[in-house]
Structures are given as structure tokens and as C-alpha cells.
Design goal:
Layout lengths: L2 H20 L1 E8 L4 E7 H4 L2 H18 L2 H27 L2 H12 L5 E6 L2 H21 L25 H13 L11
Antiparallel strand pairs: 1-2, 1-3
Helix pairs in contact: 1-3, 1-6, 3-4, 4-6
């Protein structure tokens, strides 16, 4: 795969993480003074790690777009950690959703009390799958071809100043000033 496609895939995974953290992960009934109310928690409320990890996945995608070989390797490691964080956050909620729902209940009724068993949606399970995909994306990141940053615009060894037909006087004048700055005589033939 090309670097652009891998970067796009990582950015899409980050956006999906944001979307899943905005959706409802669980709900329960809460007693209030007048009647029972249903309270819900989103993925971001259930576990703020999901939102933070999704933002970090997006940042990793941007770093991949701009970085060289070492940045790519660091990004691959970061994706493994971020995928694990997304999965662990969803698993933590699924193990015991009651504390997060009780916190939401306290905001509605002032009492940390819920009725019945909490209902959990499919979104935390999809977040676990997304975490696995983010971690698996690290394999693609390691395999993309890298270009040394900064080398794209430098002259190659065989390209010398005198043999370049597109040079004009302005460029030559700048080279002369550079030679003066290095302490060289610009009137000398081989000042570079």
C-alpha cells in the first residue's frame, strides 16, 4: 500500500473512534421525584479514554503523512498502544457499566441509584473491534515505503552547478553570496 492510503486508513479509524465515543453505550432507569427517567451514557462519558485515544489516532495519521522513517516506526508503536487503549476502555465499561450509569443518574436525580439491570448497546463491542483494527494498522504502517524527509529537494551528487542548463543569473548571484558567506572567493571557478 502507498503512504497516502495508509494515512487515509488511519485517519478514518480515528474518525470512527470519535463517532463511536459519541454514540450511546448504555442506559438504565432512574427513579426521580415525579417518575422514572431513562439515563444514557455515551462512549466518551463512559470512558473518556475513547475520545482521547481517537484524537491521538488522528494525530498519528497526520504525523505519518509528514514524517520520515523513524517517525513511521514511532507511529506504528503508538497505534498498537492506542488500539489497546480503545479496546481496554470498552472492555472496562462492559465488565461493569453500573458505576458510569450511576454517575449519570446522580446528575439527573441527585442520587446515585438506578433501577434494574443496565442495558448495553452494541457500540462498546464495535469499539473493541476498532481497537483491534487500529493495532493491526501498525503492520501496514511498518510496511509503507519511506522517503527520507528533506532529501526530495536536494541536488544529487551528479548534479553540479555548472552542468544545470536551467540556471539563471539570479541563482548564480545567490550562490556567489553563499560562497562569500562561507569565506570563499566567488570569482574562483570551483567555489561550488
Amino acid at each position: 500500500m502507498s503512504r497516502g492510503r495508509v494515512v487515509l486508513a488511519v485517519l478514518v479509524l480515528g474518525v470512527l473512534g470519535f463517532a463511536l465515543s459519541a454514540l450511546t453505550w448504555g442506559s438504565t432507569e432512574v427513579p426521580t421525584v415525579l417518575a422514572q427517567r431513562t439515563v444514557t451514557v455515551s462512549g466518551g462519558d463512559a470512558s473518556p479514554v475513547t475520545t482521547a485515544a481517537s484524537l491521538a489516532v488522528l494525530a498519528t495519521g497526520l504525523a505519518l503523512a509528514l514524517g520520515g522513517r523513524w517517525v513511521t516506526r514511532v507511529c506504528a508503536g503508538a497505534l498498537v498502544v492506542l488500539g489497546g487503549a480503545l479496546g481496554a476502555a470498552a472492555i472496562g465499561f462492559l465488565r461493569d457499566p453500573r458505576p458510569r450509569l450511576e454517575t449519570a443518574a446522580a446528575q439527573v436525580s441527585g442520587v446515585r441509584e438506578t433501577l434494574g439491570t443496565p442495558e448495553v448497546t452494541a457500540w462498546p463491542y464495535l469499539t473493541i473491534a476498532l481497537g483491534a483494527l487500529v493495532a493491526a494498522a501498525a503492520v501496514l504502517v511498518v510496511r509503507i515505503p519511506t522517503v527520507q524527509a528533506g532529501r526530495r529537494f536536494e541536488r544529487t551528487a551528479g548534479q553540479d552547478a555548472a552542468g544545470d542548463p536551467e540556471r539563471d543569473e539570479r541563482v548564480r548571484a545567490m550562490d556567489d553570496w553563499d560562497a562569500l558567506g562561507r569565506g570563499e572567493d566567488p570569482t574562483a571557478r570551483d567555489h561550488g
